[in-house]
Amino acid sequence: MAQQQTTDERILRELQHRDTNHLLHLVASIFTGGLWIIPWVIISQLNSSHNRKVDGGLPWTMILIAILVICIGLSKLYTG
């Protein structure tokens, strides 16, 4: 029963994943003279964040905050 439950959970996670169609966004960026790059980055980050939540990982904002805290700490360490 436990094996079936993990298989069902894996299938559910795969169904909940959001994929970003990078080829479509590239074409849209070319046709809009690069203006579509901003929505492309936002959509990619939102999809990536959603997928991390589905997989049980940290959202990208938490990772970014952790990186910023580390950088600030290192800069204070080196500047004395």
Give me the count of strands: 0
Helix content: over 70%
Q: So what's the overall shape?
A: flat
Q: Helix count?
A: 4
Number of domains: 1
Task: Please state the oligomeric state of the protein chains shown.
Answer: single chain
User: What value does the Rg take, in angstroms?
Assistant: 19 Å
Segments where pLDDT lies below 50 for 5+ residues?
A: none
Query: Structural class of the secondary structure composition?
Result: mainly alpha
Question: Could you describe the largest sheet, including whether it forms a barrel?
Answer: none
Span between termini? 58 Å
Percentage of residues in DSSP E strands = under 5%
Please give a structural write-up:
The protein has 80 residues and is mainly alpha-helical. The chain has one domain (2-79). It has four helices and no strands. The chain has helices spanning 2-16, 22-31, 37-55, 60-79.
Describe the structure concisely for a colleague:
With 80 residues, the protein is mostly helical.
